[in-house]
């Protein structure tokens, strides 16, 4: 049996492709692109909420936020490790992120203006990430699927802490309720953009589905997220900023309005509200951390020298 036939048979039997298995170059390249984009998203995603750690309204909220931001760093490390099983090095991927050659999720190019944003990011952004990523636990590439299992467990804590924060604020003052509605208005549509362009305009979805890297299309997962979130918004007592949002009994789903794809394209092209700041911060952190990498490498070389002696 040829290597291609073995690869196809593994996929057909819904089994996993592992690092030592033969795989088409294009399959490898797709996974490197997707896993790198995901890892970059986790690391850049630390910035919007990190902005509020020193200004959290209580010790409890500060501790929760610290744990969440730390989790995101860990997710980035798992995912860079998964990418490295495909033959790339995280330093190379970091360079591509900093130079703009590789993307991170558009969602992190929006500002976090009040502490209600921390709750809405947990509820909507981490909620969308769960919708998008639970199916990836069944992705055909072993290391990616396994990394996603732990990430999704932690994302569900992220989503729940955000929703609980919002519930608390909605039982608070009129001003706090206004903050939650304002944050919901700003984050709702960018959260729908996290799922990618419409299927008809997605250059990668069909092939990624054929290779069972993706298990659902962008539009299917976006619809699943809308259907899941509308009742949560009702329970919270906030209004989602879409007058066309309406249950469609024939479809068995919520109909919703048209996403501003021009905005999506602008943000992907680097013209979002915070793109420049996010990359500048990531570049500075990388440069400021150079001495740590050099010291660790020197120590490792010294240890290796000692073992060889
Ligand atoms: N932000 C930035 N780029 C996006 C994007 C978004 N929201 N949606 C799509 N794109 C990019 C794709 O990377 C691709 O660009 P490229 O060809 O230059 O790499 C192009 O737009 C076409 O999009 P496709 O839908 O055809 O591409 P994919 O098949 O890769 O699908 C995806 C895009 C749905 C984001 C998919 O890559 C995916 O599911 N990735 C894994 C999950 C992930 O990365 N989620 C990031 C969310 S943030 C996060 O999880 C952090 C958590 O803490 C909240």
Can you describe this structure?
With 309 residues, this protein is mainly alpha-helical. It has one domain (3-308): Ferritin, core subunit, four-helix bundle (Ferritin), CATH 1.20.1260.10. It has 13 helices and two strands, in the order ααααααααααββααα. It has a two-stranded antiparallel sheet. Strand 1 (246-248) and strand 2 (253-255) form a beta hairpin. The protein is globular and about 70 Å long. The protein starts with a helix and ends with a helix. The mean pLDDT is 97. Residues 33-34, 37-38, 41-42, 45, 72, 103, 105-106, 125-126, 129, 132-133, 193-197, 202-205, 208, 218, 268 line the site of 3-hydroxybutanoyl-coenzyme A.
Summary tags:
two-stranded antiparallel ribbon; single chain; mainly alpha; Ferritin; 309 residues
């Amino acid at each position: 049996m040829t290597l291609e036939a073995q690869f196809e048979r593994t996929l057909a039997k819904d089994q996993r492709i592992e690092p030592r298995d033969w795989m088409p170059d294009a399959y490898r390249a797709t996974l490197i692109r997707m896993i790198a984009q995901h890892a970059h998203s986790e690391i850049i995603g630390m910035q919007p909420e990190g902005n509020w750690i020193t200004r959290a309204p209580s010790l409890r909220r500060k501790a929760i936020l610290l744990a969440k931001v730390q989790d995101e760093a860990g997710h980035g490390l798992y995912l860079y490790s998964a990418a490295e099983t495909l033959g790339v090095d995280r330093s190379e991927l970091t360079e591509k992120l900093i130079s703009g050659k590789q993307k991170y999720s558009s969602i992190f190019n929006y500002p976090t203006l009040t502490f209600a944003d921390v709750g809405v990011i947990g509820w909507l952004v981490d909620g969308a990430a769960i919708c998008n990523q639970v199916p990836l636990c069944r992705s055909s590439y072993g290391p990616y699927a396994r990394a996603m299992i732990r990430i999704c467990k932690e994302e569900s804590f992220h989503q729940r802490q955000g929703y609980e924060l919002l519930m608390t604020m909605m039982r608070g003052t009129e001003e706090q309720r206004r903050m939650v509605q304002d944050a919901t208005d700003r984050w709702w549509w960018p959260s729908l953009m996290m799922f990618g362009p419409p299927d008809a305009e997605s250059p990668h979805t069909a092939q990624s589905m054929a290779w069972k890297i993706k298990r659902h299309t962008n539009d299917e997962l976006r619809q699943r997220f809308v259907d899941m979130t509308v009742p949560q918004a009702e329970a919270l007592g906030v209004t989602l900023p879409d007058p066309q949002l309406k249950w469609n009994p024939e479809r068995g789903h919520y109909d919703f309005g048209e996403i501003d794809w021009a905005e999506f394209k602008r943000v992907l092209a680097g013209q979002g509200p915070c793109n420049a700041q996010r990359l500048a911060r990531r570049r500075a952190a990388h440069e400021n951390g150079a001495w740590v990498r050099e010291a660790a490498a020197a120590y490792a070389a010294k240890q290796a020298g000692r073992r060889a002696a």
